[in-house]
Amino acid sequence: MFLLFAQYGGKAVIPVDDVCRDYFSHLTPEKFLRKAGLGEIKIPVLRAEASQKCQKGVHLQDLANYLDQRRDAALKEFHQLHR
């Protein structure tokens, strides 16, 4: 989490565009939001307001948790393949 905090200049909420650029470069922000909304990417997306057109972002802790979960899954798969 501290590395993400430094990477994003101390922001608590990272804009979806930045999250996509850095961790989901294969997705447009629109596709990321759609997949997150459908639960295909298990990460909560925050809205600055109730409006559909408002700025959307991901809380730093939620991004850190997501990355840790993906790492855990990768390690589990790695250990299963390399016994």
Describe the structure.
By secondary structure, the protein is mainly alpha-helical. It has four helices and three strands. A three-stranded antiparallel sheet has the order 1-3-2. Strand 2 and strand 3 (56-59) form a beta hairpin. 10% of the residues are buried.
Briefly summarize what is shown.
The chain has helices spanning 2-7, 16-23, 29-38, 60-81; strands spanning 13-15, 46-47, 56-59. It has 83 residues and is mostly helical.
Q: Write the element-wise H/E pattern from the N-terminal end onward.
A: HEHHEEH
Indicate the overall shape. Answer: globular
Mean pLDDT equals: 94
Cross-sheet strand order for the largest sheet: 1-3-2
Distance between the termini: 31 Å
* Unreliable residue stretches: none
Please give the number of β-strands. 3
